[in-house]
Structure formats: structure tokens, C-alpha cells
Amino acid sequence: MADSKAAGGGAFLGNLGKIYGGYAGGFIVFTLILAVLEQMGVPNKIIGYCFVILTIGVYAYIGILSRTMDLSEYYVAGRKVPALYNGMATGADWMSAASFISMAGGIYLGGFNALGYVLGWTGGYVLVGILLAPYLRKFGQFTVPDFLGTRYEGNGARLCGVIVLFCASFTYIVAQCFGIGIITSRFLGIPFEIAIFVGLLGILVCSMLGGMRAVTWTQVAQYIILIISYLVPVVWLSTKKYGIPIPELTYGQALEQITQLENKLGVVKHFTDAFTNAKGEFTWTEFNNFWALVLCLMIGTASLPHILMRYFTTPSVREARTSVAWSIFFIFLLYFTAPAYAAFAKLEVYQNVIGQPIASLPAWVQNWSQVGGLLTIKDANSDGILQLSEFIINQDIIVLSMPEIAGLPYVVSGLVAAGGLAAALSTADGLLLAIANALSHDVYYKMIDPKASTARRLIVARMLLVGVAIIAAAVAGTRPSGIIQMVAWAFSLAAAGLFAPLVLGIWWKRTTKIGAITGMMSGFVVCLFYLVMTRYAPADFKAMFGTDLWFGIRNISSAVFGLPVAFVVTYVVSLMTPEPSKEMQDFVDSIRTPKGAVLTA
Amino acid sequence: MAQKLDAAQMQRYWSKTSALMWTIFALWIFFSFVAPLFAVQLNSIRIFGFPMGFYMAAQGSLIAFVVLCVWNAIAQNKVDEEFGVQED
What we know:
Helix content of chain B: over 70%
CATH class of chain A: Mainly Alpha
Largest sheet of chain B: 2 strands, antiparallel
Number of domains of chain B: 1
Largest interface: A-B, 53 and 53 residues
CATH topology of chain A: Sodium/glucose cotransporter
Number of strands of chain B: 2
Radius of gyration of chain A: 24 Å
Order of helices and strands of chain A: HHHHHHHHHHHHHHHHHEEHHHHHHHH
Radius of gyration of chain B: 19 Å
Number of helices of chain A: 25
Strand order of the largest sheet of chain A: 1-2
Strand content of chain B: under 5%
Helix content of chain A: over 70%
CATH architecture of chain A: Up-down Bundle
Oligomer: heterodimer
Distance between the termini of chain B: 12 Å
Number of domains of chain A: 1
């Protein structure tokens, strides 16, 4: 497959197009060979093994080639990543198990209301591009807390930043380990708890030796696999059904057929109806939750350190801006396909599954019902025919099972599994690095031992990386919650804690140290309080406030309450405290312009 | 710094940059929140089978976001060049 000699080196950077083009071609040839082998009678299990092991092998290979003992290479990939490739790496960093495995499933079940995820997980890049990325790139240090520590003069703000970063990224990474566990256990046929740790090895070989440099070049490779494997089954179905290989155009017809079938089957909650509850009636609660979720996910996008730190790796401010545009384009390719994926799956189920005699259902139903409660078929009225209400499918398996439901060859299922794994691994890598870098750079080096040597800093960084990874995998083993829910919590926590101090730090010179710290902490605490109370102590919450939820807003959108608090407190306290020094204002000016040195106050 | 902007130039540079930011920000609000607000009404229009409310949330607004990001990169680079603060 790919030849990535000395990934990150000069000869490598000069030949990126050739190397990754060859790699993508190699992957397609590999898939075709497996397709031929399948026709020749190679068992499905072997095909699953090939996809999982071979792709992890490639990532490990790139990871090992990119090992480094240089600080700038380890923390920011030497700031040599061109905009286009940083866009792809951001795409992989961004699209996680939640986007790849669960999102289309969420739309399948939730219809229009779940489109909040599609909107929320794309629009945030507009904010990243206009408010943050170019300025953080100009600032040009290693981590997001670095910026807070410099702009708000001291380790107080830095530590608050690290706390928020840790809480948000850790919640997020647990969800990824969970997704990795589902896929590895399914396709390698090993128990979930062990599968998590096998997947963990996959994460560590990518990131441990080479830090950001290794993660960057593996993420580009992972993006290529995940986008190919997401598009193949949908393009295939679109061609099969409507003769045009552009699913984003053809699924309008599928939507029309779905509406007709829904009327025939007596479904009250229509797939395309906006803001309806389970009874199919418009409600303001659904309406409010929709925009609240969109807001939290978008602001969260612009606050999550593992995404922001990707823009630290471009060669210039200009490239950072261009890179944001590439990022959203690469992300858009998957997101505008997801609703098509959901619509085709829905149509397949309505047309070819519902109303069939239960005894004659195809083999995939058997295979998937054996996996712990994710698919249930129960003949409630004992007529031997499958009714809609007798078919219950979990959102986390729609994408993985759709190729089989639609009768595509098993090689497509293997391909989708490889894509899901790429998505989960790449995000886990980015998050792990964000956490470990904050702990090693901001806490250890800046706060505990500023005299530490380069070698020592890199050793500490790696030890923390392994430690955090093991704890995250252990927590994921306890199956704390669903993937998409955990991820949405992470977004809310980051949004409530980090958005206000980052944006105001750049756009409002009057923001003071005390203002930022109090604003940040009060926003974060309000958000965390709402999340934890409504999730783990709903009875106490009700006793305190006399209602289950404030304004009916679900806790996946907790930041709706934290964000305004953060902004108002920062604003009021800043005006009550003395104006920042002239030097600090000059520093802000110097990060606002691409040219020239950064003036440290 | 080779030729640092004086205070007045810096102010003009920043007000131009801010104006661009607010324009794109307003459009972002429109495509994120205002368009979905009317999803129920838009859904009564069907084009190529797509109910328009569904289409906007699933595809239309997303296309707008990509365009906004590309526009921001191009326009801001122009502003930088106008004031001579682009990187060498």
C-alpha cells in the first residue's frame, strides 16, 4: 500500500499528492481484491479481519515513521502542514464515531428533528474561521490554554482552561473508545471489554512516538478511508434505485416514497415533518430543543481544543484561514450525504423488511439480533408477518448494517467498518493529544517545572498520553451512555467554558484577567451543574426548581444556560476591574494582524 | 516588524476586518437559526421530491456554510493585502 517514507520530512512534504494519491489507489485495489475473494467464497469473518487489521497496520506504520524528538514537531507538526492536508486531517479529527456510526441512524429514527446534528456539526466552522483560527495561529504557541495564560496574564486562567479542556475532551474520548469497542468486537469477534483495549493499542501507536506530526499524517490517511467507505454504499444504492450515482440529488425521490409508505403504514410521525413529537404533532419543546442543540454544537465546535489546535500547525495565518475552508468542505462531503444514507435505509426497511413473513427474513436479521439488544424482532400479534412496531433497531447500528439490509456484498460492510474505525481512531488520537499536551505543556512545564529539559518534557508528555488513554478505555468499558449523547455533552462543556474567554480575548481588548476567569468558571459550572443534576439526580433537581428541565431543554444542550452566564459575567466583571495594561493591548493588536512579531506583554 | 501600522491605520484595518466578520456572522445566524425557524412552512413546498424545510436543514444551509468560509478566506486576504499586513 502507501509508501510514506519519513512522514513529515522534506521529501515527504514535497510529494504529498503522489503519496496520498497512491495510498487511496492502493486502498481501492485492496477493496476490489477482497470483493473478488468474497465471490470466490472466502468467509465473511476473514474479510472483516482483513479490513480491521490492515487499516490499523497502515496507521501504525505511518505513526512509527513519524516518530520525533523535536518539541515543535511533537506539539504542532513543525507548523509545516499545507492548508489542504490540514483540512483533511481536521476532517478526520472532527468526524468521530458519532458522525460516522450514529448520526445517520439518529436521522433514521428522529427524522427532521435529528437534522440539528447535521447543521450543528458544520456551521461552527464559520465561527472558527471568522473569530478564532487565524488569530490563534498568529499567536503561535503550542496549546489553547497557552493563549489563555498569555492573554489573561498568569497561571490562573491557564489552569481554568486546562480544567475545562480536560472535562470536555475526556467525555468526548470515552465516547470514541466506546465506538472503537463496538466495531472491533463486532468484526474481530472478541468481547467488548477486550476489544476496547485492542483498539487502544491502535490509538497509541499512532500518537505516542510522533505526537502531532504522526497524528496529522495518520489523520489524512484516515480521512481518505472514512470518506470512501461512507460514500460507497450510498452511491451504490442511489445508482441501483434511480440510475444516478449522486445520492444527494436522488434521495428527494426516496423522501417522497417514504411519505407515501408512511401514509399507507399509518405512521403518524412523518420522517420529514419538522419539530414534531412522537404523536406527530408540532410542539414548542421540540422546536426549542432543535435550535438549542444547533447553537451548542456550533459554539462547541469553535471551542474544542483538539480542533483549534489543528490550526496551530499550518505554515501561516493565511493558510490557517484557507484551511478552515478546506476543513468544512471535507466535512460537508460526509454531512450532506448522511440524510441520504438515512432516507435510503428507511426506504429499504419499509419496502423490503416490513410486511414480510418473519420466518423468511434474510440472514442479516439473524446476525444482528444476536448482538446484545441492538436489533429486536418480536411477533407481538403472532401473525407471522413483521409489523412496523415489531421491528426495533438501535441508531448505532443503522450505518453498519445498512449494506446488509440493502443486500450489498459483505465487502461493503467490511469497508464501512474500516471507515467507522478510522473515524473513531482519528478523533480519539486528536483528543488524547489535546489532553496530554495540556497536562504536559501547560501543567507540568509551565506550572510545575519550567526548567525541565526537552527530553524530559517529551517523556512526560508520552507517559501522560498512555495514562490518559488507559483511564479513558477503562471508563468506556463501563458503558456510561450512548455515543452521540456523550459527544453532545462534551460540546456543551467546551462551549460554556472556553468560547467566551477565547473570543472576547481577541475581539474585546477591555476583557480583563479577573473578568475572564470568573466568566469562564461561572459559565462552566452552570453548564456542568445542569448536566450532572438532570442526568444523575433528576429528583433533587425537581425538588430544587419544581420542574424536570429548565424550559424543557434536554441536558445535551446544557450550554444554552452556561453561555450567556459566561458572557455576562465576563463583561460585567471586566468593566468593574481596571483596564488591561497598554502592553496587553499592544499584544492583542499584534495577534490581529498577520504580519509582524507577536508582542508579549 | 518591518513597517508597523500606526494607530489610525490599525483602527481602519480592524474596522474593515470587523465589518467582514459581522457580515458573515449575520449570514451565519440566518442560515443556522432563521431559515430552520420556517421549516414547517417551507416543508409545504416540494422540489424534486425534497420538502424545502427538510432540504434547507439537510443540505441548503450546509452549502451556505462552505461558501461563507471560502468567502471569508478570500475577502480577508484581500483586506490584509490592502493594508500591507499579509505575511511575506
